[in-house]
Each structure stands twice: as structure tokens, then as C-alpha cells.
Amino acid sequence: CGLYPGVRLYRHGDRSPINAYPTDPYKESDWPQGFGQLSQEGMKQHFELGQFLKKRYTGFLSEDYDRHEIFIRSTDVDRTLMSAEANLAGMFPPNGSEEFNPDLKWQPIPVHTVPVDKEKLLSFPLEDCPRYTQLMNETEKTDIFLNMTETYKELIEMVRNKTGLEKANIETIWSFYDTLFCEAKHGMRPPDWVTPSVMETLKMLKNFGFQILFGIYKRKEKCRLQGGLLLDQIIKNLSNAAAPDSKQEVKMMVYSAHDTTVVALQEALNVFNGLQPPYASCHLIELHQEENGMFTVEMFYRNDTNVSEPYPVSLPGCSQRCPLQDFMNLTREVIPQDRDKECQI
Ligand SMILES: CCCNC(=O)[C@H](O)[C@@H](O)C(=O)O
């Protein structure tokens, strides 16, 4: 059966912290490129992902880069733009005739983007939606949210006092964990009071932070206003490719983005595992054509490079090889019909 590689969404690679907390002994000048920048580890992660994808789609994508076959879009952020470039370097090293410099096993491949303030497809949560803000306010009044806040109030108090993050709460404490995680990955010791068990608790709270963004309370409505926008575009890509007189040449859409983008999409699909997507993790949505001509959608999530194959992911209510029509019917409830209207309060 035929395979249209379909859509790939990945998180950028390893980076420096986005910021430091007020009492942080490490400052922006301790990082080679400053805050929020892709590290050499992050470049290697994406180069490897590009090589993996090249192998996976051998026979379905041309061996050599073909601008008609693949389209890459990134958020307009250094770390995602550079991740896409490193990914493509791994995926499309130039063959003899494509080499423009015999000493350089690299060729330029366009990475498209839109300005940050115009980005409505790959950057979530979108803050332009009053109804979503209302849903988040309501989430803060749910039992699960209040119980978490109560259970961890001593830890939150300690974080406020020790870090200077005076407004730290269950929703924002993820940022402190993120800084500690990046520093630890690059050999910078955490403060003594951040014991391994404190770190584990902070990690759990960071994961909870992702869950409340697009789930926990009124998941479907949150997803209609957030990740449903991306899922809508993906489904349009798939159904265009499946159309009998399809003029669509692009076989693979590549989106280079963030952990929240992967979570927003996976919550919309109701397949989120509740954990922060790792660096260079990749959600694959493939279109297959069976012998009988029927189009099916398969999904995979590569979040662990220690296993050779990405994990298959099934849309709830459908088989892993899900007929395109069923895929569309089952996801319709999270696709906004008129988002502007649905955002009004
Ligand atoms: C305000 C900080 C937002 N964080 C980011 O943009 C990061 O890229 C984050 O999404 C990530 O994937 O690490």
C-alpha cells in the first residue's frame, strides 16, 4: 500500500534556560549564547532525528531534497529555526550533484516562518481568546487544582522564599523547574535545598502544568480554542492528499515548534501521556492507502531515542490504522467552526 508521509511535529532540541530566577547563582552570561538558545547537544539531537526520519521514509520521499515534496515551517524563535536546520542537515545531506562546495556535506533548505505576533498555528496557548482565559480561571477553581495547591503549599512557599519568585504558584512553578533542569543538564549544581526528591516533585508539578493548559477541565472546549487549530490544518493536509484529483505535491509537512505545541495537539487528539515532551520528541501523522484504495491515518510518537521504533499512538475509538473518514469524524468535536465567535464571552 502507498504511504504519504503526512505530517511531523517536533519540539526543538536541548537549550539554555529561558530565564534565571532572582537568586539564581547562574546568570545569562554563563551560557555561550545566552538564554533560550539551542545547545550543541540540541543540534545533535535534531541531526539524529533527521537521519532517523530519512531512513523511515526511504522509498516514500525522494532520497534527495525535493522542494515539491517537503515543506518546513517553524515558529520564529532561534531554537526552533535552528532545530529545523539541524534536522534538515541530517535528513538531506547533498548528493554529488547537489553539493555546492565539495568540502561541505550540507545544502541550504528553506525553513519558513511567520512573525511571532502573527503565529496562530504553532505557538500555544494562544492568549487571544477571552473564553479560553475564562476556562483557565474556572480550572483554578476545580477540586483537582485546589487540592494540588493545598497539598504542595509548603513547597510553593519555600520556592517563593528561596528563589525570590514571590508570585510562584502551582501554574507558574514549572518555570523554576525548567531553569533547574537546563542547569543540571549542563553541569550546574542546584541549590542545596533542591534535593532529588524536591526536583522530582517540581517535575511532577511541571507535568501537571501541561495537563491543566489543555485538559483536566473542559478539555474539548479548551482544545477547540487551542490545539484544534493545528489539528484542523493537519486534517486539511491529509484530506487534500487523499482527494482523488489531488494536485497536492507536498508529501510531508514539517512543523518545528515547542513542548506546548506537541501537548496542544496531543490533547486535541486525546492521546497526551501527561508528561512534558522531551527535547526533539516528534509526533508523526502518516497517511496510508490500503490495497482496496481506502485511506487510513497512522500516528506515532518518538519520545525515546533508546528504542528503535517510535511508539504507535491510537486515536481513542479507532484502530491504530484509522480510516481517514473515521479520523475526521472522531476529531470533529475539537475542530473549531468559528473560533473568533467561540472565543467571545
Ligand atoms: C515562556 C517560555 C516559553 N517556552 C518556550 O518557548 C520553550 O521553547 C518551551 O516551549 C520548550 O519547548 O522548551
Which key features would you list for this structure?
345 residues, alpha/beta, eight-stranded mixed sheet, 12 helices, globular, binds N-propyl-tartramic acid
Structure description:
There is one protein chain. This protein is an alpha/beta fold and 345 residues long. 40% of the residues lie in helices and 13% in strands. The protein has twelve helices and eight strands. It has helices spanning 40-56, 78-91, 130-139, 143-151, 153-163, 174-185, 196-214, 219-225, 227-242, 259-268, 324-331, 339-343, and strands at residues 2-11, 70-74, 112-113, 252-257, 282-289, 295-302, 311-313, 322-323. Strands 1, 2, 3, 4, 5, 6, 7 and 8 form an eight-stranded mixed sheet that branches. A hairpin with a 5-residue loop joins strand 5 (282-289) and strand 6 (295-302). The longest helix is centred in the middle third of the chain and has 19 residues, at 196-214. The protein binds N-propyl-tartramic acid. The site of N-propyl-tartramic acid has 6 residues, from helix 10.
